[in-house]
Amino acid sequence: MTSTRVMPAEWAPQSAVMLTWPHPGTDWFSCMEEVEPVFLAIARAVLRFQNLLISCEQVFRAERLDRELNQWARENNLPGRAHCVAAPANDTWARDHGPLAVTTPDGTRLMDFRFNAWGGKFPWEKDDALNQHLAVAGCFGDTPLERVDFVLEGGSIESDGEGTVMVTSECLMTPTRNPDYDRAGIEALLDETLGAKRVLWLNHGYLAGDDTDSHIDTLARFVSPDHICFVRCENPEDEHYPALSAMEEELRQFQQADGSPYHLAPLPWPDAINDNEGERLPATYANFLIINGAVLVPVYDLPQDQAALITFRELFPDREIVPIPCRPLIEQHGSLHCVTMQLPAGVVEL
Length: 350
Fold this sequence. Notes:
Oligomer: single chain
Shape: globular
Distance between the termini: 37 Å
Protein name: Agmatine deiminase
CATH topology: L-arginine/glycine Amidinotransferase, Chain A
Mean pLDDT: 96
Largest sheet: 4 strands, mixed
Keywords: Hydrolase
Number of strands: 16
GO molecular function: agmatine deiminase activity; protein-arginine deiminase activity
Organism: Marinobacter segnicrescens
Strand order of the largest sheet: 3-2-1-16
Structural class: alpha/beta
Number of helices: 9
Radius of gyration: 19 Å
């Protein structure tokens, strides 16, 4: 039976953005002073446009964030309000342990896929249970939360809101996620659970320092149903050049449902950023977040930041482009989109 579900595009109306706040029990313990300002910048940017749902393992921190963020929002006459709750978490990557929304004839549902830290790379049990904690706490209102016995991270799938999704084979076919599924089985499950009538598979794509096995949200993103932006590396001496050139060629071969090609927009390629051990970190401008009326864009204090912001103003002329300094986030191998998860209109009402 064909699913009547549809996974909304990120530009669909939203009620809130979800954040999982860092705490000393995460890998951020040695750099909390550097990373918390990034989360605060994201939180305040979101509150300018819509509500915010924050979970925090520390009760006192959740209470303080709730008080201070809402006071700031009221003082500035902002439309958004924060709802901060205490809930256990292993880490902060809400994009991957947060719920995925679908619209159905009976209303919105939240799909709670399994999370195993990108194939068992890190502790994950508290993150995998987080959505259930939030549902019990009433954070999702009357929106049903449906558990799915399949490992899927939000960063690994892009939806155009019209039944087409884009994924990478390196991620979804990794045997440490769903070893009993072949490509056809994955496509059938994505159709059943998310209403994915078409799955566009990228077989190439690479980002140094990435723990996710090439999540799509670091490489290529829908900006409208007929338009895809992607990271382009033009330096043949760069280690990324072969894989990203092959990925661009694949994108050029993709067709829309009506058979026409996609409009493609390259994103600037940032200069290399290395950690203290000399390992390259996964800086990418593809890790942006679309919210109501705005696009939050990660910047890294690099010469390419301004070119990236100009590109996003061209891609989203009707939305405000808000730069968010994300250099501390990539120290733990993620960026802005990775730490956020949007929730559709009607889910979080404050």
